[in-house]
């Protein structure tokens, strides 16, 4: 078995069928499909059960969050490569797996491409290096992980409610793992779905901590300025007014750090002139 595709889901009755169809309609057939349901209370399970002939493994039980469910999927996977497809996302085309695995990746640990953001039409987000990872992370919907990678670096850390994939990416790049970028759109990512909208208060807390701890050896004025601008801009564009007070409280809790970064940024921009 070459690829294990894993979908974790809870209460996604409006989107799960399109997700499943995007997998089972693939022209590539050397894959298994695993669905981990977190005890949905809507009709999600009923929809999944109509496709059981196409699903390799399916469990429905309580979990401790999305990364706990993803870890369950990893433990069940038999493929050389592991791919996570969200329950409100779809593979980009019926032949995308065939196109991706038309090449030999024997020396690579991670294969990744791009995702198409469903609502905005933006393609996210090109090739990454360690410096670019300071300010953003590729979506896991764009990534194929060699299963052995999880033996080396561990599964997703449940300490991080919304950014455990970011932690894994940092650890693998720091550890010297080989990442291969392919210039293809892998999936259509629903940026208004549950996997995106959860990234509010917990996201702000986790992301800031990860960046401070994960990139200590790379810290310099330019990178700190980049981190500040990226964090603040993301905050402004992704948090509706109805959640602004709650999220501003978190932002202000880090204001001492942000003030320091502003000073550094001003110094850096003056030196550039």
UniProtKB/TrEMBL annotation:
<dbReference type="GO" id="GO:0016758">
    <property type="term" value="F:hexosyltransferase activity"/>
</dbReference>
<dbReference type="Pfam" id="PF00535">
    <property type="entry name" value="Glycos_transf_2"/>
</dbReference>
<protein>
    <submittedName>
        <fullName>Glycosyltransferase</fullName>
    </submittedName>
</protein>
<feature type="domain" description="Glycosyltransferase 2-like">
    <location>
        <begin position="4"/>
        <end position="120"/>
    </location>
</feature>
<dbReference type="InterPro" id="IPR029044">
    <property type="entry name" value="Nucleotide-diphossugar_trans"/>
</dbReference>
<dbReference type="InterPro" id="IPR001173">
    <property type="entry name" value="Glyco_trans_2-like"/>
</dbReference>
């Amino acid at each position: 078995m070459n690829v294990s595709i894993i979908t974790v889901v809870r209460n996604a009755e409006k989107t799960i069928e399109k997700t499943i169809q995007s997998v089972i309609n693939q022209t590539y057939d050397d894959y298994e499909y695993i669905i981990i349901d977190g005890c949905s209370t809507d009709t999600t399970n009923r929809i999944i059960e109509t496709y059981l002939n196409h699903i390799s493994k399916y469990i429905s039980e309580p979990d401790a969050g999305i990364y706990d469910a993803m870890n369950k999927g990893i433990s069940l996977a038999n493929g050389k490569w592991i791919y996570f497809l969200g329950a409100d996302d779809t593979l980009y085309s019926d032949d995308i797996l065939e196109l991706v695995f038309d090449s030999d990746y024997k020396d690579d640990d991670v294969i990744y491409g791009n995702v198409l953001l469903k609502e905005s039409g933006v393609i996210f987000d090109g090739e990454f290096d360690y410096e670019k990872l300071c300010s953003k992370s590729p979506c896991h919907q764009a990534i194929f992980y060699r299963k052995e990678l999880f033996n080396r670096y561990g599964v997703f850390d449940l300490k991080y409610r919304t950014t455990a994939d970011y932690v894994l990416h940092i650890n693998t790049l720091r550890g010297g793992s080989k990442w291969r970028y392919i210039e293809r759109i892998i999936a259509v990512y629903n940026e208004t779905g549950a996997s995106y909208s959860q990234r509010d208060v917990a996201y702000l807390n986790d992301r800031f901590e990860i960046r401070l701890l994960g990139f200590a050896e790379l810290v310099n004025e330019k990178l700190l300025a980049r981190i500040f601008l990226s964090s603040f801009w993301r905050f402004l564009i992704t948090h509706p007014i109805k959640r602004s007070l709650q999220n501003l409280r978190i932002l202000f809790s880090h204001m001492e750090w942000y003030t320091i970064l502003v000073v550094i940024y001003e110094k850096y921009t003056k030196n550039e002139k």
